[in-house]
Amino acid sequence: MTPEEVGRRVVALLAPVEATASVSGGQGYARATVDVPLASWADAVRAARDDAELDLDFLDWLSAVDELADGFDVVLHLWSVRHRHGLLLRTGVPRDTPVVASVVDLFPGAAWHERETHEMFGIDFAGHGELRPLLLPPEFEGHPLRKEFVLASRVAKPWPGAKEPGESEAGGGRRPVRPPGVPAPGEWGTTPTPAGAAGAGEGPRGGTPARPARERPARPAPGERPARPAATSAAGEAGPLGRPLPGERPTGPPRQEPEPDAAGES
Prior knowledge:
By secondary structure, the chain is an alpha/beta fold. It contains 4 helices and 9 strands, in the order αββαββββαβαββ.
């Protein structure tokens, strides 16, 4: 069945309930999408599963979408293993009373998905019976996938591991980390470091004087070869790289004459 045919079939099965069928994007991966009233949520799932033409016998996933003032959309994706077509069922849940019927009795595999949706969005699934924490610790406060949830929890609560000054009331500042070879702020030129800009022990205001500048040899003029260090010859005069001067014989260790043996003595 095409996505359009799947949508029309679901709407016909739910009549006289007002259900709206559409087709999701995705070209070759498009799915029939049917919006059903909140009170008909479990009936729509049962009808899609039990109908012989649809035969949507596999629960793929269940989740929710935060629509802010419009509440939440609970979305369920079903798939037919035999017919190779799918269906997206969707229903709206009010924000002030986020409760929807559980479908665990129809698809036991929905238990994990409903627990996660309850944990992340704060939606209750009536009839589930065991909405225990799944991914977060029991003491966690709030629902992370709600759009009003502040992800930067350090803003809401003091964080004892603050690394930068002003990041949290708890925890002090830390010396700024500089790349290797980069001087402290007080060592650049002659401009003094403002009060409090340098870390402890850095620059003229940090309690320790700045390190003295290193003396570097003068650079040769353009086109001039740098001078090589002169070496000293055996005679005590300077020669390039230890070589003898012009007209000078190379010196070396004294030659040792062989000693005459006893038979050669006269």
